[in-house]
């Protein structure tokens, strides 16, 4: 639970590993506490790595159990599922609240090698294609959110990861897309269902190997929205070589700074203020990239931070956003 020493709060934030963009984001938040320390509110701030490397899955549990005080969750719907004990969560983690949503535009690619001759999920199921599929990652406590989400979509079409292996295929769980994409490019796999689309590796993959992009049906996307709270997105025509029309997919965007409901209001307020104060520095490493390769909607605005959070804002954060005129 939240610690306090003679100088103020000892704040713990769970992020990801030091090479990960979340670490850079949370490092900027820590930098923002330099001046805030002068108020005597916060004594020190520590950044923690996630259990088993499963940041999107384990971070909500670490926050809910009080092992840390705040953390980054992606996509925001993960926080909702964790609170409700739905989806990959076997039980509720407790009441979580939003501090700030950093507007990362992202969605899921559903790419298969062109030589497979497959144009739909229905065809995958009907022909029982022995895919060598790259997904996300899995650990001792289960799959990460992406890995779980992908399989839920497959199950809507009547098959699972286990079925793919029963057809003579294989499902690989190497981790993030930066690890998985090279497996497809090198020929070690012939399909990848992954997120993290704001990276040039995807264009490089499509240039090196002919691909087709599948699209989940309107019915499947609506079911994921209604059952779990997901949002939809569009993969635009021409986004990669071989994508010849706009395609429906699941949204996977938004890095949500989250805390427990019982975090002191004064601390949630200052976390929201620090997020706002540091938003330009957080966006700075990406601002000169082509728009489709920017990790954030730039410029990041206060309106970005306080909207589309999926879960309620903490009262302290809400107070801050109301004071600056973002909420009415």
Short description:
The protein is of the alpha/beta class and 328 residues long. The chain has helices at residues 21-36, 55-64, 77-84, 121-127, 145-156, 161-166, 177-185, 201-208, 218-228, 265-277, 279-283, 302-306, 315-323, and strands at residues 3-5, 8-14, 42-48, 70-73, 96-102, 109-113, 132-134, 138-139, 142-143, 170-172, 191-194, 211-213, 232-235, 247-250, 255-260.
Protein described:
With 328 residues, the protein is an alpha/beta fold. It has two domains: 3-105 and 253-323, Periplasmic binding protein-like II (D-Maltodextrin-Binding Protein, domain 2); 109-250, D-Maltodextrin-Binding Protein, domain 2, CATH 3.40.190.10. It is 36% helix and 20% strand. The protein contains 13 helices and 15 strands. The protein has helices spanning 21-36, 55-64, 77-84, 121-127, 145-156, 161-166, 177-185, 201-208, 218-228, 265-277, 279-283, 302-306, 315-323; strands at 3-5, 8-14, 42-48, 70-73, 96-102, 109-113, 132-134, 138-139, 142-143, 170-172, 191-194, 211-213, 232-235, 247-250, 255-260. Strands 1, 2, 3, 4, 5 and 15 form a six-stranded mixed beta sheet that branches. Helix 2 packs across helix 3 (77-84) and helix 10 crosses helix 13 (315-323). It starts with a strand and ends in a 5-residue tail after the last helix.
């Amino acid at each position: 639970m939240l610690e306090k020493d003679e100088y103020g709060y000892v704040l713990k934030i769970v992020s990801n590993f030091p090479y990960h963009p979340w670490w850079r984001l949370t490092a900027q938040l820590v930098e923002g506490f330099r001046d805030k320390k002068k108020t005597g509110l916060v004594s020190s701030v520590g950044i923690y790595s996630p259990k088993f490397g499963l940041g999107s899955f384990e971070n909500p549990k670490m926050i809910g159990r009080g092992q840390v005080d705040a953390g980054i969750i992606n996509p925001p719907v993960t926080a909702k599922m964790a609170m409700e004990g739905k989806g990959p969560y076997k039980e509720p983690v407790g009441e979580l609240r939003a501090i700030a949503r950093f507007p990362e535009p992202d969605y899921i690619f559903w790419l298969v090698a062109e030589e497979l001759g497959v144009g739909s999920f229905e065809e995958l199921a009907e022909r029982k294609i022995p895919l060598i599929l790259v997904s996300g990652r899995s650990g001792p406590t289960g799959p990460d959110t992406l890995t779980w989400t992908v399989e839920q979509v497959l199950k809507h079409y009547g098959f699972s990861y286990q079925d793919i292996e029963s057809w003579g295929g294989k499902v690989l769980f190497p981790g993030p897309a930066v690890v998985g994409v090279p497996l497809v490019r090198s020929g070690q796999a012939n399909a990848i269902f992954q997120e993290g689309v704001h990276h040039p590796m995807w264009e490089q993959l499509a240039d090196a190997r002919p691909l087709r992009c599948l699209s989940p049906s309107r019915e499947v996307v609506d079911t994921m929205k209604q059952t779990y709270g997901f949002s939809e997105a569009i993969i635009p025509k021409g986004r990669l070589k071989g994508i010849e029309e706009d395609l429906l997919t699941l949204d996977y965007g938004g890095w949500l700074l989250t805390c427990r409901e019982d975090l002191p209001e004064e601390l949630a307020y200052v976390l929201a203020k620090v997020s706002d104060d540091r938003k330009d520095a957080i966006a700075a490493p990406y601002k000169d990239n082509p728009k489709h390769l920017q990790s954030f909607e730039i410029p990041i605005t206060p309106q970005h931070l306080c909207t589309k959070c999926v879960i309620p804002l903490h009262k302290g954060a809400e107070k801050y956003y109301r004071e600056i005129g973002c909420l009415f």
